[in-house]
Design a protein that fits this description.
It contains 13 helices and 17 strands. By secondary structure, it is α/β, with parallel strands linked by helices. It has a six-stranded mixed beta sheet with strand order 2-1-3-8-7-6, with helices on both faces. The protein has a five-stranded mixed beta sheet with strand order 14-13-15-16-17, with helices on both faces. Strands 10-11-9-12 form a four-stranded antiparallel beta sheet.
Length: about 425
């Protein structure tokens, strides 16, 4: 069974409010073997809502409407869905009484406009809302000759989540054919999206029953795998089989096969090797240390470091020789190596990381353009330096640089 989720509210079409309910519902539906094929956001307009409802009913077996069930003039979901289905609304006196009792329990008097929350589409099952005044509604039946399930849920997240879990999950489980969805996520480090896809597409195209989605971020490509089958074991087997082939192709470029972040993986490896890490950052300005310490328990392997932004502090904090900076410049292979070696010795760590570059948008030159970053990694066996040129604005360059630095540690520990 496939589903469509429709989020209702003009505020969701502004920069100030974001739909998060659909993420929750998607997770819960996937647990039932239901795949969400469309998500739609519609403003508070009855004509637009009716059109969206008709379109959703034409292409999905399960349609969930979120929001627009309140007492105000712009709450139009009940009316629009009734229009789309060609059904009448009836006012339920029991719901009105329930709303009145809720107001009375707070020493408040119910205003007349609250009565519209008692309007029920003909044939719908009322879904009590223990956390609000607007009940949900469940409608099932044939639409254009096909069996459909339609849910109307309140918009506030604490109401929607509780109502869906308490009133809808078991109803859906009993109604739907038993199916299961298995998912898996592979993360690939420091490889472009097109380069990654060129290598893996010939493999995943052979698995027509597995949906493969590729997402690219700064310094990371994610391969999301999804399969649906009559049993969780069967779905998981197909996912695992494909994942194994993809990992064989990409080798150590795959740093996670379960959704863990780069900083989590680096932490695992450092603990496995009983090793410690220190950092000396220039252009990343503390981002590298922030990422490392965002992982709980990082004090077991991260000893600390310094944000050595000025040339003077590169010398004071990481013992970078002043004549080295004068000769090669702060953004150079030599200074990156010296930062890594100096902070390692200062902190008594197994590994030292040094990062220096031009994050932009100013400060670049023809010889050292914006995006140029040098990464140094020092250990008792010596020091290696990687030079990279990263695209994008200041934020992206800094993130790319931190990702490259962490990936150097990961590969070293492999």
């Amino acid at each position: 069974m496939n589903a469509e989720i429709i989020a209702i509210g003009s505020e969701l079409l502004t920069p100030y409010r974001q739909d998060t309910n659909s993420l929750y519902l998607t997770e819960r539906l996937n647990q039932l073997g239901v795949e969400v094929i469309f998500k739609t956001i519609v403003g508070d307009n009855r004509e637009h809502l009716t059109a969206a409802a008709n379109q959703a009913l034409s292409r999905a077996d399960l349609v969930i409407f979120m929001g627009g069930l309140g007492p105000t003039e712009d709450d139009l979901t009940r009316e629009a869905v009734a229009d789309a289905l060609g059904l009448e609304l009836r006012r339920d006196p029991e719901i009105i009484a329930s709303i009145e009792r809720r107001f009375a329990s707070r020493n408040l008097k119910m205003t007349p406009n609250n009565a519209q929350q008692a309007d029920v589409i003909a044939g719908a099952v009322v879904l009590p809302n223990a956390h609000g005044t607007a009940p949900g509604q469940w409608i099932s039946g044939k639409y254009d000759g096909r069996e459909k399930i339609i849910l109307l849920l309140p918009g506030p997240p604490h109401e929607l989540k509780a109502l869906f879990d308490q009133q809808c999950m078991e109803r859906l489980r009993a109604k739907l054919p038993q199916q299961f969805i298995a998912t898996r996520e592979l993360k690939v480090a420091m490889m472009g999206e097109s380069a990654c896809d060129a290598r893996v597409a010939p493999i995943y195209k052979r698995y027509q029953d597995v949906q493969t989605t590729i997402l690219a971020g700064a310094g990371e490509v994610q391969l999301h795998l999804k399969a649906r089958a009559a049993s969780l074991e069967a779905a998981q087997q197909r996912i695992d089989e494909l994942a194994e082939k993809l990992e064989e192709e990409l080798g150590d470029a795959v740093f996670s096969d379960n959704g863990d972040s780069m900083e989590q993986i680096v932490g695992y490896y450092l603990q496995m090797r009983n090793a410690t890490l220190a950092v000396a950052e220039s252009c990343t300005g503390g981002l590298l240390a922030e990422r490392i310490t965002s992982v709980s328990g990082s004090s077991r392997y991260f000893v600390g470091g310094a944000v050595a932004y000025s040339n003077e502090l590169k010398t004071a904090f990481a013992d970078v020789p002043t004549d080295l900076i004068a000769k090669h410049g702060a953004v150079s292979r030599e200074v990156a190596a010296a930062l890594a070696e100096g902070i390692r010795k200062r902190c008594g760590a197994t590994f030292g990381l040094g990062v220096t570059g031009v994050a932009g948008p100013t400060g670049g030159t023809p010889e050292k353009p914006v995006g140029l970053v040098f990464h140094g990694l020092a250990s008792e066996r010596g020091t290696e330096v990687v030079e990279r040129s990263f695209p994008g604005d200041r934020k992206r360059v800094r993130w790319f640089a931190s990702q490259q630095a962490l990936d150097m540690v990961r590969r070293k520990l492999l």
